[in-house]
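BUG-373 | component: ligand-complex export | severity: low

The export step for S-adenosyl-L-homocysteine jobs runs without errors, but we want the raw record kept on the ticket for reference. Input record follows.
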Amino acid sequence: MFPFFDSRDRPLYNNSPVTAALTDYDIPSLEARLGGDGFLPSHASRLLKALYRGNGTIDVESLTPGKRLLARLTSDLPPRSSQLIARHVSADGTTKLLVGFADGNAVETVLMPSHREGVAAGCVSSQVGCAMGCDFCASTRGGLVRNLTAGEIVEQFLHLRAAAASAGRRVKTLVFMGMGEPLANFDNVVGAIGRISDRRLGALGRRQITVSTVGLVPGIDKLAEADLNVHLALSLHAPDDATRERLVPPNRRYPVADIMAAARRFRARSGRVPTIEYCMLAGVNDSDEQAEMLAGLMDGFRAHVNLIPYNAIGPDVSGACYRRPEETRMQRFVGILRERGVVAHFRATRGDDVSAACGQLRETLASQPTASS
Ligand code: SAH
């Protein structure tokens, strides 16, 4: 029903520039704007609280006596700039949202119901496309289109909250593991985290937020120094530089030893133990030797290793075709890690039938213009 992208992955609908919205503001910056426009600055907090309470929409009736202000303001500053353009629910309840922005670009945002009743985990994107070039990741195929604004990241969170509410759940944790490299869009990611975790606005605890990175060392240090108290996940995928360079091109700039050193600095400063993400690819990074090497890297570090069975995306960026290892191989790999005292788990693959791996829904929709929502 909706061809969003042409054959070269350019957006087809509504090519207007990115518009400003209330989600672009935190309380102090909206106070400054209202003050400058001759309104009482104190309206800022009421407006933004109503916006977050309404998950991105404002119930005007609840705002009396601010209706006049709202009407004036929203004529050039709508509550939000994005719209939900597709929603796919898989058999296991994983809900994949395609969130479209004013310039015609779209990103994926995923809600994963927890095993615990009433709660869910959310996954947001930080960029449209990605420049990192990881060979097995669909998000990077078309390169980087643009950074998302802090407001656009916040809006994904609000769409997630609305989707969770309609499933009788609330968003308890949030991971930056969607499309893009969050540390390559540092200021906007940190700005979004500020509003999402502000007790008066998103009210999500910072300890419930995880920033996942391909391993940009200066970004990891900057995140540590920002003292945000968020959790860090490192997408390692290989313990040796030769394999990792092939899978994750930024490794040429920031090799494994440097990334692990940055992870240790992050832990020393924040007191938070990073998670190591490891996407398992048959015959590439799943050997006994690599399990031993990975365990060696974890010596004295106590990091938690999250093994992710590869989610097939078809021919990869380099033309290689990866496969998920056999179950017995993956069990042997995790067995070696555990024997060496490493805490390691498999991440349950969720929502396979709704293309839950990075960048997949956007690709599916691009290639199937008749997909239904
Ligand atoms: N750029 C950041 C965040 C986005 S990727 C990072 O690299 O961490 C989020 C996670 O999804 C990464 O650990 C990535 O390796 C994983 N991933 C990407 N494509 C995948 C695929 N086809 N199968 C399984 N996991 C994948």
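Assignee comment: Attached the raw record above. The two ends are 8 Å apart (CA to CA).
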